[in-house]
Amino acid sequence: MGYRCIQCGFNIKTLYLQYSPGNIRLMKCENCKAVADEYIECEITIIIIDLILHKPKAYRHLLYNVINQETLKFQGLLWKLAAIFLLFDACIHSYHLMEFYYFLMP
């Protein structure tokens, strides 16, 4: 199983080249010429924030390049991710609803 570009979904062999510990070079996609997965360098908190903000690239990074379908029970994990997505979505909608009610109250 290979990796995929989070921009266009094109299959790539590797996401980065490591020259020495802490010195890596991110690979570019052959199809779209953009960095294949910039989330490789990001900390987990940045990725979680982008997941909360529903950024498609963060979800693609998680589904294409982090989760290995051969080692994990993919169907169970997919249900967990769907539940987390719905929870985040419900939090955002409840926040907007509270904001709306506070706006209407005198």
Automatic annotation (TrEMBL):
UniProt keyword Lipid metabolism present: yes
Any single biological process term in GO: regulation of plasma membrane sterol distribution
Pfam family, one: Arv1
UniProt subcellular location: Endoplasmic reticulum membrane
Keyword Transmembrane helix: yes
Gene Ontology CC terms, in alphabetical order: cortical endoplasmic reticulum; endoplasmic reticulum membrane; Golgi apparatus
InterPro entries in UniProt: Arv1
Bilayer topology term: Multi-pass membrane protein
Residues passing through the membrane, by range: 77-98
Record keywords, A-Z: Endoplasmic reticulum, Lipid metabolism, Lipid transport, Membrane, Sphingolipid metabolism, Transmembrane, Transmembrane helix, Transport
PANTHER family reported for this sequence: ARV1 (PTHR14467), PROTEIN ARV1 (PTHR14467:SF0)
Function field: Regulates also the sphingolipid metabolism. Mediator of sterol homeostasis involved in sterol uptake, trafficking and distribution into membranes.
Family membership noted in the UniProt record: Belongs to the ARV1 family.
Protein name: Protein ARV
Native species: Pisum sativum (Garden pea)
